[in-house]
Design brief:
single chain, mainly alpha, Serine Threonine Protein Phosphatase 5, Tetratricopeptide repeat, 27 helices, globular
């Protein structure tokens, strides 16, 4: 049996010679010898595609994905599943596999999305058992959520499983009861804290009142003239009226602050749903009194806790319009479009990216994402979700059809699910990039970039993906954005400088390329390829400079014959003019 490295070398040689059949034969043997090496399945699948064997590719990619899963290389397994869905959306089992893989990475939103897709397809096949099992798995992704339990209960009722439905409803009511008691305790604690603060303020006010009591016996008329006294009385009334208005305003704001503090308390106790309810309520009150900064901060907080929540992102867009803040508007629209896209609301996301490009035609993210919608998708479009979520109250469960209940369930899941670990998003982006899935990689790196610690690395990877796709201007823009982040060790900037050098080299901008390569060289002088590039571009620019100087000298050097003729002509003209 050959060594793995030897196998890979042979395959590379056969490919270089253009002999795909021998490369395929070598790999077909190798996956028998190395059944736990997922990369071999990936390469074999790619060669099957190259030789127009789609069915073989689908089979081998799925086997490879399951090998990667067994070896706990979850991002690589997901990347292979994505390749499968690019070839065919009808591989129903792959949706369940993707759900399991994202669940392992704690990417609950994506996990829920794929399980929902799997369940809906199973419903269409009349495979109720598989669909209901998927719904129960989704329930585990958002534990302790009574709304989701109630909707699953209603689905069970509709398909004739009343006992299980009643059991789930009982569980939902128990959670509601427990939450109610917790809510009462927290609100009581919050009230005590507020009362203590009010008491502190009141104590200070009482001291002031006691000081004033000594002077209350004196009438103002006894101190100043009657005319001035009357004027002061009018001023006093105005001051009292203004004070009342201010107190009312402060009281209103303090209610908002009280609700925010209550939300923070819920959050610290791990009751995220109640915390979000408090933040949403406070944001609505802030909106009513036109305190847009507070409303924006609260909606950002909700959006951070709920990556699939559309309401908070829609409100951020509206606030940006009111504030006439172009940068905020673009960022808010990008965030909303990303959430729609992650929920598979493709048509709505595409329309939003199109609107962004009208405001900012050079926006790299919007351009990339809009271009990605060129190929039609077979996913269920959830564009209606945004309108539904902003519309208001829901009907009683008994009035819903099974399709409406499933749609409601999907919506409630996305409203409740959190983001998970940003590092796993970065790792998934790396896996996508390694398998040539650059669009998917960019999407993952953009999510990872929301984490302050990962933003720098994520921007470098996005720039690298743009460069691989030949989108040089977008790559330069993103990489320069990365250079603006200044809180990293100098050695970490090597990659960005080197990639920028590649970009300018492809644009044939030798001077800029040399500058970037030189910046990278100053960080690390041990990279042979970089040393060659610095020497190469230095020589090119020296030669160019030499030629330029020679050209200038040629222009300055006088043509004696021409000068002599010119002088004669000038002299002749002079004589004629004189005559």
């Amino acid at each position: 049996m050959s060594e793995l490295g030897e196998v890979k070398r042979k395959v590379a040689e056969f490919e270089a010679m253009g002999d795909e059949e021998k490369a395929i034969a070598e790999l077909e043997k190798a996956i028998q010898d190395f059944p736990e090496e997922g990369s071999l399945f990936n390469k074999l699948g790619d060669l099957y595609i190259k030789t127009n064997r789609k069915a073989n590719a689908l089979t081998i990619y799925e086997k490879g994905a399951r090998v990667f899963k067994e070896e706990t290389y979850y991002p690589n397994a997901i990347a292979l599943c994505k390749k499968i869905l690019r070839l065919s959306k009808e591989q129903v089992g792959v949706y369940a596999l993707l759900g399991e893989l994202h669940k392992e990475l704690d990417q609950r939103g994506e996990a829920a999305n794929y399980f929902l897709e799997f369940a809906e397809r199973k419903m269409k096949e009349d495979d109720l058992e598989s669909a209901l099992n998927a719904y129960n798995t989704i329930k585990e992704l958002v534990p302790g959520n009574p709304k989701i339990l109630e909707t699953i209960s209603a689905i069970y009722e509709k398909v004739g499983k009343k006992e299980k439905g009643a059991e789930l409803l009982k569980e939902a009511h128990a959670i509601e009861s427990k939450r109610g008691k917790l809510r009462e305790a927290i609100e009581a604690e919050g009230t005590i804290e507020v009362e203590e603060k009010v008491e502190e303020k009141t104590t200070g006010a009482k001291i002031e009142e006691e000081k004033e009591e000594f002077e209350e016996d004196l009438d103002i008329d006894e101190i100043v003239s009657p005319e001035i006294a009357e004027l002061l009385k009018d001023d006093s009334r105005s001051a009292i009226e203004e004070e009342v208005v201010t107190e009312e305003s402060l009281e209103e704001l303090s209610e908002i602050d009280k609700t925010i503090e209550l939300g923070k308390l819920y959050q610290n106790l791990g009751s995220e749903e109640e915390a979000i309810d408090c933040f949403r309520s406070a944001a609505e009150e802030a909106w009513k009194i036109k305190d847009y900064d507070t409303a924006l901060t609260l909606n950002k907080k909700i959006a951070g806790l709920r990556p699939f929540d559309l309401k908070s992102r829609q409100h951020m867009v509206e606030i940006a319009k009111i504030k006439d803040d172009k940068e905020l508007l673009i960022n808010s629209m990008l965030d909303l479009a990303e959430s729609l896209n992650r929920r598979d609301a493709k048509s709505e996301a595409k329309d939003l990216y199109k609107r962004i490009l009208k405001i900012d035609p050079e926006n790299a993210t919007a351009n990339e994402m809009f271009a990605a919608f060129g190929q039609p998708k077979d996913f269920v479009d959830l564009g209606e979700v945004l309108r539904t979520e902003l519309a208001g109250e829901k009907k009683p469960d008994s009035l819903y059809s099974i399709e409406e209940l499933i749609s409601q369930f999907r919506r409630e899941v996305f409203e409740s699910v959190g983001e998970g670990d940003f590092h796993s998003r970065y790792d998934l982006g790396v896996a996508y990039k390694g398998m040539g899935l650059y669009q998917e990689a960019i999407e993952e790196f953009e999510i990872a970039a929301k984490d302050g610690e990962l933003k720098f690395k994520a921007l470098e990877m996005i720039g690298s993906c743009f460069l691989e796709r030949g989108k040089i201007e977008d790559a330069i823009k993103v990489l320069n954005e990365g250079l603006k982040i200044t809180n990293h060790p100098q050695r970490e900037y090597f990659g960005i400088h080197f990639l920028l050098g590649n970009c300018y080299e492809k644009k044939n901008k030798m001077k800029e390329a040399l500058q970037c390569y030189y910046n990278a060289y100053k960080i690390d002088k041990t990279v042979p390829e970089l040393t060659k590039k610095v020497s190469k571009f230095t020589a090119i620019l020296k030669k160019k400079l030499k030629m330029t100087k020679a050209g200038k000298l040629q222009k300055k050097k006088p043509d004696l014959k021409s000068v002599s003729t010119t002088r004669k002509v000038k002299t002749k003209k002079s004589k004629i003019t004189y005559l």
